[in-house]
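Handout, page 2. Input:
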Amino acid sequence: MAASSSKGKPFRFAKLDIKDGFWHMAVGNEDAWNFCYVLLSENDNIDMDEIEIVIPNAVQMGWCESPPFFCAASETARDTIQALLEMDCLPEHIFEGKMMDSTHFAEGITLDDGTITVIEVFIDDFIRMTNGNTEAHLRYVSRAMLHGVHSIFPPPDASGHDGEDPIAQSKLDNGDGEWKYVKEILRWIIDGENYTIQ
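Output:
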């Protein structure tokens, strides 16, 4: 952003979060033994043979290999998003409207060699930055982001599981996914019009 500051092409930011990210990571039966825990009992005098052990088939918080295991998946989603950006067209996505709702689009600005689009991921936060401020560009980047995340973390209708979408709906509803010139990202307030960070 600092190397490409131009008052005519300010940067906008948006982000997506994965809800309960580790729980979306299934593990095989052998690896599930890494996550065993004893189910508590109300009976203090429980017999050893009656102790119940839970063996979950999803990655658990606290396991030292959970963050890198999860990050391998989220980085793969990031790479998929980058590949989707290079395609000629993408189908609409059901959530793209939530990312475009209150966005005011630039007029008279065309995409050229000076347009920068950066996609990054930090654990479960997918972060986008671009100085391409036309509706078509912002919508296309939004579609790539949504389809890319869903290619690795599929929605319930694709996975056949009960529950919510892996993309955090509450954060989308609160405007985290919308394109803004000023956005709080990882505790930093980034201003793409004034090219500042605090």
